[in-house]
């Protein structure tokens, strides 16, 4: 029960932050659609430049702006978390589907991370907030499913996964953002 409540609170908070970031991206995308010369609120310099990222084909991977996916996905995440806090219980198949959804969303985030870092050469601040929140959601959902027996695992793994899941989150952050720092190192140093 405590694991469910902790997971629900974490899921609610990360879902809200990711939803808000997606909403800002939708707003900025609409402003760019109305005025091609619009300067986004997160256009800070050559590296941190949402407008540059939003003006590429990668910003519409499925033929419509990517942030719309975030609005729908994180609204579902917030709804599930709120339902859990209200006492709702979900079937094993539901948890597995949610886990698959979070893993697929994380894979999409990796695709976007790769393209913004290595192809576009600019980063989007609100996109990075979504990357961070989705990494937490995917890792903690998987950990929750292992802890609660949705994903079968030996007892010693089920007990250990709670503590190790934060280590996995931090490891993913170090890898993703470490590569970003290495890739943009010369530009970062020259901007000071």
From TrEMBL:
Cell wall biogenesis/degradation listed as a keyword: no
Tagged with keyword Chaperone: no
Record GO terms (molecular function): oxidoreductase activity; quinone binding
InterPro entries named among the record's database cross-references: VKOR, VKOR_Actinobacteria, VKOR_sf
Transmembrane segments: 7-27, 68-86, 93-114, 120-139, 160-185
Domain Vitamin K epoxide reductase as annotated: residue spans: 4-145
Gene3D superfamilies listed in its UniProt record: VKOR domain
Record's bilayer topology term: Multi-pass membrane protein
Pfam families referenced in this protein's UniProt entry, alphabetically: VKOR
Protein name (record): Vitamin K epoxide reductase family protein
Organism name: Rothia amarae
């Amino acid at each position: 029960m405590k694991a469910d409540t902790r997971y629900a609170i974490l899921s609610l908070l990360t879902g809200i932050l990711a939803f808000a970031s997606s909403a800002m991206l939708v707003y900025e995308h609409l402003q760019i659609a109305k005025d091609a010369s619009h300067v986004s609120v997160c256009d800070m310099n050559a590296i941190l430049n949402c407008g540059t990222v939003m003006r590429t084909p990668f910003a519409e991977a499925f033929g419509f702006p990517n942030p719309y996916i975030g609005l729908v996905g994180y609204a579902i995440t917030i709804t599930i978390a709120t339902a859990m806090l209200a006492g709702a219980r979900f079937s094993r198949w539901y948890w597995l589907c949610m886990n698959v959804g979070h893993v697929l969303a994380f894979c999409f985030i990796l695709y976007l991370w790769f393209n913004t870092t290595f192809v576009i050469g600019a980063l989007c601040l609100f996109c990075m907030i979504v990357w961070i929140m989705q990494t937490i959601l995917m890792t903690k959902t998987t950990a929750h499913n292992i802890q609660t027996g949705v994903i079968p695992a030996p007892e010693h793994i089920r007990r250990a996964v709670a503590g190790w899941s934060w280590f996995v989150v931090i490891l993913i952050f170090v890898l993703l953002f470490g590569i970003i720092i290495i890739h943009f190192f010369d530009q970062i140093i020259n901007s000071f």
